[in-house]
Specification:
The complex is a heterodimer of chains A (230) and B (228). The model of chain A has no long low-confidence stretch (mean pLDDT 91). Chain A has helices at 4-8, 10-42, 47-62, 65-73, 80-83, 87-91, 94-119, 123-131, 136-166, 178-189, 192-221. Chain A is mainly alpha-helical and 230 residues long. With 228 residues, chain B is mostly helical. Chain B has a domain at 21-175: Orthogonal Bundle (MetI-like fold), CATH 1.10.3720.10. Classes of the chains: A mainly alpha (230), B mainly alpha (228). Chain A binds chain B through residues 58-59, 62-68, 70-71, 74-79, 164-169, 171-172, 179, 182-183, 186, 192-193, 196-197, 199-200, 203-204, 207-208, and chain B through 57, 59-66, 68-69, 72-73, 75-76, 161, 165-166, 168-169, 171-172, 179, 182-183, 186, 190-194, 196-197, 199-200, 203-204, 207.
């Protein structure tokens, strides 16, 4: 093991770290914004409203992220409509393709998490809100959604970690994220153990930070579930 | 459409490889998962900490990083050992590397669901086994194992579905699975989107068939359970 090479290349790893963090954060933000309407529509009682978001969820959860990313990165150029519009400039950028793929993917997973939690809202809470005369939007805003976000927290924590790990696929399409940095270091110096173990350690540390962060958040938002401290 | 028909045999060949990789890694993952779960539940502190490190580290690192690490690193490791023993240069077979890696990764996930399953088996049943004078192995194979399946099945099903999707990564280390072949077909026909769509659909077919199988297993192993 020769970690001298790694120390020399640490700036590259930190650049990769930055890309990974930005990419994951942006995908999660866009994905969450998409997931809320998807989940709301999917829980609708009207079949024609709930069917399209359910199909969306089924597709994005049932197929590999790698295939979804390739569909966008390699596939978009197939369509003349895309090539002739402003979109072509976007889809020629690898990082934009990765961002779109990751955001759509996490929207599917997060949508399913939120759909499940919305459906499990204790009916008494909704009934109580109705009986004090709240309108439907108000019930969603004040009762259902806040309670859903609280209860979805542990599952969403797993999804964030899943997205972090999935983001390593970006390294396959020329983006220099943590995995991309490791690939470059390995290609230049032929040190597969050192280069990939370093990337792995970075990912491990971020994973621990996410787990710790969600524990703190659960501590705060699930305070009402904790036994009273004497 | 005619291109899809022309390249369909190639894609199907890839699908067969995908299924092969998935099933073989499943066998390894079940074995490692069972060992991991038993180690986590054992009284030995060393076994517990080894299993704990295994599940935490593997689940904290992306599959892709582990896969490239084991494939490229394994290549060097095997040849370093080979050099000392006087072997010729060995090319690590990507199929074996892929199967071992995916099995090794998912062993960690299976260990967690098996551990939960074993813990859910009621203490009384196990004690009854000992009361009949069964040996620990007999209790495990005749009582704990059949009874835990029902509890471990939902976690097992989820892990299997994630694993099928993870096999797509073997295309990265040069294995000609259906994603790799779709890339070839898409490149030569200039219709990559179409072929990746076909592959996505085939993945949905695999997961759909697995769903039916898992439901059948669930029914079979819940025979003795009353439902409301």
């Amino acid at each position: 093991m020769d970690f001298q090479v790694i120390i020399e290349n640490l700036p590259l790893y930190f650049k990769g770290l930055q890309t990974t963090v930005v990419l994951v954060f942006a995908s999660l933000a866009v994905g969450l914004c998409l997931a809320i309407p998807i989940a709301l529509l999917a829980t609708s009682k009207r079949k024609w409203l709930s069917a399209p978001p359910k199909a969306y969820i089924y597709f994005f959860r049932g197929t590999p992220l790698l295939v979804q990313m390739f569909m966008i990165y390699h596939g978009m150029g197939q369509f003349e409509v895309v090539r002739e519009s402003f979109l072509w400039a976007v889809f020629q950028e690898a990082w934009a393709c990765a961002l779109v793929a990751f955001a759509l993917n996490t929207a599917g997973y997060t949508g399913e998490i939120l759909r499940g939690t919305i459906e499990q809202t204790p009916y008494g809470e909704v009934e109580a809100a109705k009986s004090v005369g709240m309108s439907k939007p108000l019930i969603y805003r004040r009762i259902i959604l806040p309670s859903t976000f609280r209860r979805a927290l542990p599952a969403y924590g797993n999804e964030v970690i899943f997205m972090l790990h999935g983001s390593s696929l970006a390294g396959l399409i020329t983006i220099v994220d943590l995995f991309g940095a490791a690939k470059i270091v390995n290609a230049r110096n032929f040190v597969p153990f050192e280069s990939f173990i370093t990337a792995g350690l970075f990912y491990l540390i971020i994973t621990f930070l996410i787990v710790w962060g969600f524990k703190r958040a659960e501590h705060r938002w699930h305070a009402y579930l904790r036994p009273r401290e004497s | 459409m005619s291109e899809v028909i022309a390249y369909f045999p190639l894609i199907m060949k890839g699908m067969l490889l995908t299924v092969e990789v998935a099933v073989l890694s499943l066998l390894i993952a079940i074995l490692l998962g069972m060992i991991g779960a038993l180690a986590k539940l054992s009284k030995s502190r060393i076994a517990k900490s080894i299993a704990g490190t295994y599940t935490t580290v593997i689940r904290g690192i992306p599959d892709l990083v582990l896969m490239t690490l084991i494939f490229f690193g394994g290549q060097i490791l095997v040849n370093d050992i080979g050099e000392k023993l006087g072997w010729d240069y060995i090319d690590v077979n990507p199929f074996i590397a892929g199967v071992l890696t995916i099995g090794f990764i998912f062993g960690a996930y299976f260990a967690e669901s098996f551990r939960g399953g074993i813990l859910a088996v009621s203490r009384g049943e196990i004690e009854a086994g000992y009361a009949f004078g069964m040996k620990p192995q007999q209790v495990f194979f005749r009582i704990t194992l059949p009874a835990m399946v029902r509890h471990a099945l939902p976690g097992f099903g989820n892990n299997w579905l994630v694993m099928v999707k993870t096999t797509a990564l073997v295309s990265v280390i040069g294995l000609q699975d259906m994603v790799y072949n779709a890339g070839l077909a898409g490149g030569s026909t200039r219709k990559p989107f179409t072929f990746y769509c076909v592959v996505a659909f085939l993945f949905l077919v695999i997961t759909g068939v697995s769903d039916v199988g898992l439901r059948w297993l669930d029914k079979r192993y819940s025979v003795g359970v009353r439902k409301a």
